[in-house]
Amino acid sequence: MEGMELILHYFPELSEKQKAQFSQLQEIYEDWNSKINVISRKDISELYLRHVLHSLAIAKFIQFVPDTRILDIGTGGGFPGIPLAIIFPECEFLLCDSIAKKITVVNGAAETLELSNVKTHAGRVERVTDKFDFIVSRAVAPLEELVDWSKGKFIKQSKNEFTNGWICLKGGDLVEEATVSGRKFEIIPLQKWFKEDFFETKRIIYAV
Question: What does the DSSP 8-state code read for residue 52?
């Protein structure tokens, strides 16, 4: 399976609007990548597997309730934030990256997809003053650094099935990294949901 077939296999209950939005991603990112290189040539040819479905592992882990506020640190070209914003249209997303040209791509993608629930921040995450229910990231930095960058950025009261915290997509052996962070954590292999070989070494760290 590849492309939209892959997404629909794992998320068969998408609305027609969501299907249309996901189906546009390949063209949107190929177009932007020709102007601003944010995704490698190999990855762009496997966009739905390596970026879109990978991002959507978070939607398998947790179903955010409406009005949940999510901060995506180091979003790059918009992952995991853009796919999650499509899946959870009633939630609010702030996609943050310190490299302005990457945020240019995110803004362009969000505008084309008419994602009114996406806002962006071009700059260091420490300068973000809002508070959030969850902070997500994808292979950005060790958990200890993410914790340090995001001090004081959580809403105290939790309204989802999981306590407010960090949900990070990472690869490899993560026990030592998570332990160093000094936080309570859980590590979940993505092959719990996705059977493709690409996910064999991929994990979610959930930390509070």
Answer: I
